[in-house]
């Protein structure tokens, strides 16, 4: 054991090993020192200490060198066998009290409300634009909607999760490190957005062709150009917002895991849907006169992909995602597109469903993204990739285990689950007051709607638990892989459960079909 300003024999118990405001440096397999600030507070010398672990700060130390710190209290450097963060005693004491129920609730609930109102506005926009000529004539756009709205889960939320983890680990504490992390991540997101936008439009074209039995080349170009341009612009704008949020969160001592993903959700749906509507409508209006515009957009963005690839490779963190992060993004896009098929069919029967679709999908994706980001950061801070800490030794557990375990993950899951009913009540009441949705908001409708929302979030939170632990065990970084799958699953579950809700209402005599001449018999 190496120690400075700490005479005496090596302590044998956790209580003895941890003293007031002590910094511990844990050496990993690569010879890096991970300095963990551990503060202990107790008012009674005989009582059990309360230990809080504030974060990990990497420090390169040569063999035999001592780490100079600015900490005024005594500093102790010990080997990992003396203080192992995988030790359940250390981990439980350190992390269980790191964030209180109140602090998590406050940090998450207000961004959650802002995100929810953003989704309500997005739903109102979709309720309006579904009657626009471009959406009526090119119905494949409805298949694109969940896939493009899901980009916030595929790209922006994974960006937020990656940056939150790096910020919490101290890898963005200097301007140079922050700048390197920012521009390479934005370049990576642009590369992914262009590819995903192109693949999503091709999938929408093929699906529309198979379902309708006819194919329009002009409509195909419109879909591709609209999808790529929307994905690129929305991802860049939201990426800048995410960077700003995370930097400010660190400055004001707020856990970015709690606020970054909800803010991405709040702006993501609205910005993406507005951009898709405006861009597709503009291209549709110029379809006859400016036939060169859509191909020019497609070719320009395809040529930019190699540039973004080169920029992304300048940082080791983004380079790994560039090579290994495509499977979850593409698979999530396909899953979201299946949700788009459900939306396309559901709107043809119940166009009142349009205003609720972004809200239902968005709330579920928002909440599970917060939980996934927190779980991922927790694993990054307490173990190495491929090694499960004692608190997460079981990959598969019962569906209720996520709410019953005595740790911070269970606490946050219960808090997030408690937001579902009050959140949806607030958002639905807003829709009612704005007289949107083309339906009568009966008590029976609210019961079915809230039940669907609870089922969706419960499934997502349980899935997040085992998926992230499974990925971690298999040496897959959940920061870049878990959230795309989870938000896409949220889109699929939300669309399916919402359609089921409207079908039950219709079968029980609560008719919600819009009889206006705008749609007639459907799209």
Automatic annotation (TrEMBL):
It is a multi-pass membrane protein. It is found in: Membrane. InterPro entries: SLC41_membr_dom (IPR006667), SLC41_membr_dom_sf (IPR036739), SLC41A1-3 (IPR045349). Its main location: membrane. Residues 145-278, 357-498 form the SLC41A/MgtE integral membrane domain. GO terms for cellular component: plasma membrane. SUPFAM superfamilies: MgtE membrane domain-like. PANTHER family: DIVALENT CATION TRANSPORTER SOLUTE CARRIER FAMILY 41, SLC41A_MGTE INTEGRAL MEMBRANE DOMAIN-CONTAINING PROTEIN. It comes from the Eukaryota. This is SLC41A/MgtE integral membrane domain-containing protein. Gene3D superfamilies: SLC41 divalent cation transporters, integral membrane domain. Keywords: Ion transport, Magnesium, Membrane, Transmembrane, Transmembrane helix, Transport. It comes from Tigriopus californicus (Marine copepod). It holds the Pfam family MgtE. GO terms for molecular function: monoatomic cation transmembrane transporter activity. Belongs to the SLC41A transporter family. The chain crosses the membrane at residues 108-126, 182-208, 220-247, 259-280, 292-311, 323-343, 415-434, 446-470, 482-507.
């Amino acid at each position: 054991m190496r120690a400075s300003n700490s005479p005496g024999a090596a302590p044998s118990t956790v209580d003895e090993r941890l003293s007031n405001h002590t910094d511990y440096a844990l050496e990993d397999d690569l010879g890096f020192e991970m300095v963990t600030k551990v503060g202990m507070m107790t008012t009674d010398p005989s009582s059990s200490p309360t230990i809080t672990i504030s974060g990990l700060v990497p420090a390169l130390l040569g063999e035999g060198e001592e780490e100079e710190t600015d900490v005024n209290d005594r500093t102790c450097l010990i080997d990992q066998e003396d203080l192992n963060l995988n030790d359940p005693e250390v981990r439980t004491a350190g992390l269980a009290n790191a964030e209180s129920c109140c602090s998590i609730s406050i940090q998450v609930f207000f961004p959650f409300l802002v995100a929810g109102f953003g989704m309500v506005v997005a739903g109102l926009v979709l309720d309006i634009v579904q009657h626009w000529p471009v959406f009526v004539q090119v119905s494949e756009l409805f298949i694109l909607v969940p896939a493009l709205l899901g980009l916030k889960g595929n790209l922006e939320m994974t960006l937020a999760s990656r940056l939150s983890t790096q910020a919490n680990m101290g890898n963005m504490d200097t301007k140079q490190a922050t700048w390197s992390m920012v521009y390479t991540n934005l370049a990576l997101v642009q590369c992914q957005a262009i590819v995903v936008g192109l693949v999503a439009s091709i999938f929408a074209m093929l699906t529309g062709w198979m379902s309708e039995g006819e194919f329009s080349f002009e409509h195909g170009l419109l879909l591709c150009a609209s999808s790529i341009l929307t994905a690129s612009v929305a991802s860049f704008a939201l990426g800048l917002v995410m960077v700003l949020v995370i930097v400010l969160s660190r400055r004001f001592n707020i856990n970015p895991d709690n606020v970054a993903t909800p803010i991405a959700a709040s702006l993501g749906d609205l910005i993406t849907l507005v951009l898709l509507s405006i861009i597709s409508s503009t291209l549709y209006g110029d379809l006859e006169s400016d036939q060169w515009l859509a191909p020019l957009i497609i070719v320009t963005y395809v040529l930019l992909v190699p540039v973004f690839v080169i920029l992304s490779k300048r940082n080791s963190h983004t380079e790994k995602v560039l090579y290994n992060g495509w499977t979850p993004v593409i698979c999530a896009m396909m899953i979201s597109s299946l949700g788009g098929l459900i939306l396309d069919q559901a709107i043809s029967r119940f166009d009142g469903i349009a205003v609720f679709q972004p809200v239902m999908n968005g709330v579920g994706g928002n909440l599970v993204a917060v939980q996934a980001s927190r779980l991922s950061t927790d694993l990054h801070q307490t173990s190495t990739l491929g090694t499960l800490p004692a608190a997460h030794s079981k990959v598969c557990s019962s569906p209720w285990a996520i709410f019953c375990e005595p740790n911070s993950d269970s606490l946050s899951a219960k808090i997030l689950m408690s937001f579902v009913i009050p959140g949806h009540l607030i958002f639905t009441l807003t829709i009612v007051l704005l007289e949107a949705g083309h339906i009568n908001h009966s008590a029976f409708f609210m019961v079915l709607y809230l039940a669907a929302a609870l089922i969706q979030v419960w499934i997502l939170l349980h899935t997040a638990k085992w998926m992230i632990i499974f990925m971690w065990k298999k040496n897959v970084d959940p920061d870049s892989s878990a959230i795309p799958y989870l938000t896409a699953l949220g889109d699929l579950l939300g669309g399916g459960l919402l359609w089921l809700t409207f079908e039950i209402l219709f079968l029980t005599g609560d008719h919600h079909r819009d009889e206006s001449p705008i749609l007639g018999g459907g799209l």
